[in-house]
Amino acid sequence: MTTEYSGSGDPKRSMELLWGVQDPPRRGPKPKLSVERIVRAAIEVADAEGLAGLSMRRVADELGVTAMSLYTYVPSKAELIDVMVDTVHAEEPRPAGSEEKDGSEDNDGSRSNGGGRAGLERLARENWARYLRHPWLLQVATSLPVLGPHLMAKWDRDLTAVDGLGLTEIEMDLVVSLLQDYVYGAVRSVIEAARVEQRTGMTSEQWWETYAPLLEQVFDPDRYPTAARVGEVSGEEYGAPSDPARSFEFGLQRVLDGIESLIRTRAAEPDRRSR
């Protein structure tokens, strides 16, 4: 799988593109393109073809222009990916009617996540849905984070879900990171399963139907008794080697249980100071 690294472009140009810092418009014909159009086209290409299919030339083809014409707006693929990552984090779909329950609208039009377990579960599901809409996000290593306005706004919303619950600022940050890391790991299985089907033409169920009879010929249940017992039950239940979506649901609740336990522990500790 192709891996790209955020923050690998020109820092000054990336920040200018992320925050919309542009030179004053010059006199002359109106530009045919814009950074927004280029980024949207790039996201469409990456959604359909992954980052392996993304290039300045491919984006130019999508827009019906020459590759050289893009460099007036975006200096390279590295800066383009930074803006793509930030842009998709502006997408926060919410269930119908959630506005009445999720908190008041902020001045910039965004809404808070609400607090406690419900807010944390909501942000986990939003992250899950975003990865499924844009699987290429898993191919962008963000150890050097993208410092864009949409990601900053998202981080602020995420922290709101654990604000005022008795956690220190560091614990708030670690809880949000824990949930993000859990979703990142869990969603990989779902996306990889979909890719396997696309690449091989075989579903998990078809794979299991093919390999299960062959495994029975060589597998000794007396040698692996626990695996035999659990494998028989889970294989019959899933009809496949695993059920990634079910694993996500199960794991999410256990992670939330652990966070709730931490919050209860901190609430019982007198006079905790931020550290």
TrEMBL record:
Keyword list, A-Z: DNA-binding, Transcription, Transcription regulation
Domain of life: Bacteria
Basic and acidic residues bias: start-end ranges: 91-101
InterPro entries linked to this entry: Homeodomain-like_sf (IPR009057), HTH-type_TetR-like_transc_reg (IPR050109), HTH_TetR (IPR001647), Repressor_TetR_C (IPR004111), Tet_transcr_reg_TetR-rel_C_sf (IPR036271)
GO molecular function, one term: transcription cis-regulatory region binding
Region (Disordered) residue spans: 1-31, 91-118
Gene Ontology terms describing biological process: negative regulation of DNA-templated transcription
Domain HTH tetR-type: 32-92
A Pfam family matched in the record: TetR_N
Residues annotated to bind DNA: 55-74
Protein name: AcrR family transcriptional regulator
Organism: Plantactinospora soyae
